[in-house]
Amino acid sequence: MTVPEITPTLLSAGGAGKPVLLAGAGLGTGAKALWIDAVPFLPDFQVVGLDLPGHGASPASTETFTVAELATAVANVVEKLRASGDIEASAPLYYAGVSLAGALGLQLGLDYPDLFKGIGVLCSGAKIGEPQAWLDRAETVRNSGTPTMVVGSAQRWFAPGFIEANSEATTRLLHTLQNADRFAYAHACEALAGFDVRDRLGEIGTPVIAIAGGQDEVCPPPFAEATAAGVRNGRAAVVASAAHQAPLEAPEETAKLLREFFLAA
Questions:
Q1: Environment class of residue 58 by beta-carbon count within 10 Å: exposed (0-12), middle (13-18) or buried (19+)?
Q2: Closest CA to 21 of 50, 57, 37, 45
Q3: Is residue 35 helix, strand or coil?
Q4: Is 210 exposed, middle or buried (0-12, 13-18, 19+ CB in 10 A)?
């Protein structure tokens, strides 16, 4: 088993004694670029960003990994944060992730059922896309680099008109994609190719909120509805204005949904 390394980034100042929210970013994105606009609307939490291998602050992976191995990497991060005193050992722990990081949330619910009090699965699902398409993309990026993904990702990630109205926010997210390690990006594609937990959702007992973007063509609202219906304690919600990057596109609304669900969990 190869466990890649995930580097945490503290996104909110202070927070001693507050519940901890681990905020994960998906394929081609970075936690700070994706979540920083939502942080002011999450005052009840100490927010810690998690980047995929080779993205943002995390070192590049050297070999293929699975979503289950990413889950182990997240558990390792929690252990290190507690040992270092960056988060209090007794603080309640929550997780929210977008796209691949949302899928990772479901895997955490399966493999580490007692680690989190609540899980947010954003713009994601129990299976995303088709395996061959992910393997084809992995090969393309491995050979030609992540900049080949910028135009297509911009079209998929954001609701119509969002880029024009929010150039700073979209630019910083697309820069993360451009700067991502191409081999780690390919490894993440391969992890998605092998991910399908649709028949295991009923094993997840941790409360789960599945949030979809109303404009998301990658993981449309029925994905969130299926996730919420499949787990033991789930709720589905839709952020109507967003596509595939809800914390960036609608930070206040997304944060409100997470806050209300987690603090009631």
A1: buried
A2: 45
A3: helix
A4: buried
- β-partners of residue 47 are 21
Q: Which residues on adjacent β-strands are paired with residue 208?
A: 119, 234
Tokens of 23: 């905020």
Strand ordering across the sheet containing 118-122: 8-10, 46-50, 20-24, 93-98, 118-122, 208-213, 234-239
E-only strand ranges, the chain? 8-10, 20-24, 46-50, 93-98, 118-122, 208-213, 234-239
Q: What is the pLDDT of residues 66-103, one digit of tens each?
A: 999 999 999 999 999 999 999 999 999 999 999 999 99
Structure tokens at 79: 């252990």
CA distance 60 to 48: 20
Residue from 7, 30, 11, 29 nearest 20 by CA: 11
Side chain identity at 261, as an amino acid letter?
F
* String of DSSP letters for 138-158: HHHHHHH-GGGGHHHHHHHHS
Give the 3-state secondary structure of residue 167: helix
Q: What is the pLDDT of residues 254-264, one digit of tens each?
A: 999 999 999 99
Distance CA(60)–CA(237), nearest Å, equals 34
**Rounded CA gap, 162 and 1, in Å?**
41
